[in-house]
Amino acid sequence: MRTILLNIFLITFHLTTSAQTFQWAKGIGGTWDQIVDDMVHDAAGNMYMVGHFYGTVDFDPGPNIYNLTAAGNMDIFITKLDVNGNFVWAHQIGSTYSYGHGKSITVNTYGDIVIIGEISGSGAVDFDPGPNTVNGNNFEGDVFIARYNSNGNFVFVKNFGENFSSSNYEYDIVFSEAYSLLGAAIYVTGKFSGTDDFDPSAATVNLSSNGNKDIFVCKFSYSGNLIWAKSMGGTQDDESTAMTTDASGNIYITGNFHGTVDFDPGPSTTFLTSYGNSDVFVIKLDASGNLVWARQLSGTSSERSKSIALDNAGAVYIGGEFSGTIDCDPSNATLHNLTTSLTSYNGFLTKLDASGNFVWAKNVGGQEIEGICITSTGEVCIGGSFSNTVDFDPGPNVLTATANSWSDIFMTKLDAAGNLAWTRQWASSGGGTGADYGKAMSIYNNDIYLAGTFEGSVDFDPNQGVSYLASAGGEDIFVLKMNETTTSVEKHRTKSLTLNVFPNPTPNNIHIQAQTNLKGVEIYNLEGQLIRSKRINNQTEIDLDLSDLPSGLYLLTLNDEKGQSYQQKIIKK
């Protein structure tokens, strides 16, 4: 084995790139677990998050302290941060013997927010964070919607249904400010079983499931009064997972279904039949709940959707996960198959036009795609989490990343055609069984915000800087901000670094020894394309497997803990 001793001095190179600039990361934590489930931005850039927590949590991510202590076994939280991530307010919902789950949150142009969640257990629950008491009673198995103004003051709470007691149910809620005689509306979707009354007033509007679990969608007025309720489902389990609306008040819902389902909630029928264990559906309803179109994505095994978004042209983006093979073209005439060799699930992203016709589909690597954001120029950002080793490049090139812990966080940006622009990974420094999850995304002025949970210590600056957050106990909450600028970048590095790199040339692997702690490594081909990226947690020695790379010359870039970057050519035989 031949060892090459390298001294790297002045390195200069130019490239024009879409550079992602890390702005900040904020942490919210306590001695127990805190889980964020959703995040939105208002017109002024303030962000609102909803989720649940145990024990005592400091909800001020800055130097001050704002503690809330769960009254019950698990309480719901709502918190507001300003555009710079500074604390504004936080509230909790819970009672002595309750379990609360905040599922989704939406905001209108005036900063009014509505959350949807569920509470199980006994005891009265006070939904008013002020001096007044507004108790919700007999909430066992019910879903509630609660509205607050931008200052966090209570407006109303409504509850409906009785068969929603499972904490793993998915619900989504959105405001629609499309003009109508009834003003702004609130849409809610989820799944239910049996017969339920969906009218929170003294009146009764019952829906009955056809099978085990069916899909529901409801429209409420701005005051929380039920306008209509619809259901869809077959004889097996069916669920909606995400929803959005357009400027005309049309509703777009995605989810998963088994067997044969009539997706027309009216008197007509539109049947879709799953081909695998479960298929993905996407439907469009008008503002009155009438079906406009229904589409499905089918595969050989199980396919699950997790998120949905619209761009300015009305195109629909669906993110999810699949195993085996999935046909992402909903038409019967053509196939557009994506395949994965992973034993676990792999992520997919599909784009349909405003009429539900196929545009493109990409195999995007991360298994849990929890959020999709579309920029004003049609670029697509996705975020979530992944395990094991995945390829984040949806094209013919390869950009693999390996999770440092049980689950790592990722954010990926694609151009308008679905080609990879960049991807970033965050992981706990301890590795092992630690779990880090991206749970929610939001966009404001083309800046991307990602929120989720982490354990241990994580450096949230994906570039050359350092921005560590350390959890106070179990799973803590993070929120980070990235912005995007297209610039001409010139790098100069004059500091020398002594490395042992061997063997070079190499048929398969290279081993790197450094005299400083390394933070990351990247490999570029001669066209300047990033083909490999790996996060390193302050190690001085690393091994890289290059066996899957074609023979040729590559540029190795190393980043150390002090923000210095170093480059060296390597040869793959």
Short structural description:
This protein has no helices and 48 strands.
Which structural class fits the helix and strand makeup? mainly beta
N- to C-terminal distance:
15 Å
Number of helices: 0
> At CATH's second level, what is the architecture of the domain at 4-13 and 495-572?
Sandwich
* Rg, alpha carbons: 25 Å
Low-confidence stretches: 1-18, 486-497
CATH class of the domain at 4-13 and 495-572: Mainly Beta
Work out the number of β strands: 48
Mean pLDDT: 84
The largest β sheet comes out as:
6 strands, antiparallel
The shape, in one word, is globular
Hey, roughly how much beta strand do the residues contain?
A: over 45%
The CATH topology of the domain at 4-13 and 495-572: Immunoglobulin-like
Which range best describes the helical content: under 10%, 10-25%, 25-40%, 40-55%, 55-70% or over 70%?
under 10%
Topology:
Blueprint: E1 4-8, E2 11-30, E3 34-41, E4 47-53, E5 56-58, E6 67-69, E7 75-81, E8 87-93, E9 97-107, E10 113-122, E11 125-126, E12 135-136, E13 142-148, E14 154-160, E15 172-176, E16 185-192, E17 195-197, E18 206-208, E19 214-221, E20 226-232, E21 239-245, E22 251-257, E23 260-262, E24 271-273, E25 279-285, E26 291-299, E27 303-310, E28 316-322, E29 325-327, E30 337-339, E31 346-352, E32 358-365, E33 368-374, E34 380-386, E35 389-391, E36 400-402, E37 408-414, E38 420-426, E39 437-444, E40 447-454, E41 457-459, E42 468-470, E43 476-493, E44 497-502, E45 509-524, E46 530-545, E47 552-560, E48 565-572
Antiparallel strand pairs: 1-44, 2-5, 2-43, 3-4, 4-7, 5-6, 7-8, 9-10, 10-13, 11-12, 13-14, 15-16, 16-19, 17-18, 19-20, 21-22, 22-25, 23-24, 25-26, 26-29, 27-28, 28-31, 29-30, 31-32, 33-34, 34-37, 35-36, 37-38, 39-40, 40-43, 41-42, 44-45, 45-46, 45-47, 47-48
InterPro entries: Motility_Chemotaxis_Reg (IPR052918), Quinoprotein_ADH-like_sf (IPR011047), Secre_tail (IPR026444)
Signal peptide: 1-19
Domain Secretion system C-terminal sorting: 501-571
